[in-house]
Amino acid sequence: MELLFPTVLIGIAFICILVFLYYVPFLLWISAKVSGVHISLLQLFLMRIRNVPPYIIVRALIEAHKAGLKQLTRDELEAHYLAGGHVEMVVHALVSASKAKIDLTFQMATAIDLAGRDVFEAVQMSVNPKVIDTPPVAAVAKDGIQLIAKARVTVRANIEQLVGGAGEETILARVGEGIVSSIGSSANHKAVLENPDSISKLVLSKGLDSGTAFEILSIDIADIDIGKNIGAVLQMDQAQADKNIAQAKAEERRAMAVALEQEMKAKAQEARAKVIEAEAEVPKAMAEAFRNGNLGIMDYYKMKNIEADTSMREAIAKPSTPSRPIKSE
């Protein structure tokens, strides 16, 4: 027991020292003092209480102090961290902007960072412009030939428009729209192939970067390919459509003619049925005439002779089929 008690005391003392060094980062305070940053141990302790990592704030203050940024304060950095911002990225951006002679204030940098944009990357893009490749843009000249163009857009970040400004997608959409408009207004595709820089000049003159987070420096046509003959394709489609319409109308007329023919046949059959029905009434009428004494035997024979004579004349009037000559053996 006598040996266990000092060991427990040593363990408790060690834990207390670790807790003290955690809440009162003495070594970090010494590093700040050596770097020329004035901050007290009490302020570091209060940072721990406020759940603000002292290491991030002190390192940012040291970097700003060494870069000559005297306007940054501990309270501003803490407030930005508690607001969900990236303190280190903001300080990096401020230092880069200061070295590149770019007017960037702490308030603007924090606003850009809280807006979800990478403020350090934006400053770098202001110094070193970025090249954006557009996807293939297809457009049709007035002569009906399709052209497929690819462009390279060189942009630089517009620090003042980063908050609320449109992104790269808007730039690409506007450039594509300008390329389509420029090619579509050309008289023929050969003029575009001979002077591709005319597309760049026309698109660049439209001020496509207004309201965006970028400033367009140049638009260069990287490649132009000839696509389909859209005019010929449209004419072929129109001819096929006209052909289908004509066939449909012809089929409609044929169907109407067939229906009319069927109707006429039906009427003819109806007429023949009426004639047969009328002929069937003739013997009845003759029998009735015999009974009433209006028709005699001689009259009946005369009528039969007339019918036989008529049948003979019809047979004579019909063309006869020539008989085949009999070959003799």
Low-confidence stretches: none
Report the strand count.
4
Strand proportion, as a percent range, falls in 5-15%
Q: Which class best fits the helix and strand makeup? A: alpha+beta
H/E topology pattern: HHHHHHHHEEEHHHEHH
Protein architecture, described:
This protein has helices at 4-23, 26-35, 41-49, 54-66, 74-82, 87-99, 106-114, 119-127, 168-184, 189-194, 197-204, 230-292, 297-317; strands at 130-133, 137-140, 145-157, 214-229. With 329 residues, it is α+β, with helices and mostly antiparallel strands. Strands 1, 2, 3 and 4 form a four-stranded antiparallel beta sheet that branches. A hairpin with a 4-residue loop joins strand 2 and strand 3.
What is this entry, summarized?
This protein has helices at residues 4-23, 26-35, 41-49, 54-66, 74-82, 87-99, 106-114, 119-127, 168-184, 189-194, 197-204, 230-292, 297-317, and strands at residues 130-133, 137-140, 145-157, 214-229.
How does the SSE layout of this entry go?
Elements: H1 4-23, H2 26-35, H3 41-49, H4 54-66, H5 74-82, H6 87-99, H7 106-114, H8 119-127, E1 130-133, E2 137-140, E3 145-157, H9 168-184, H10 189-194, H11 197-204, E4 214-229, H12 230-292, H13 297-317
Helix pairs in contact: 2-4, 4-6, 6-7, 6-8, 9-11
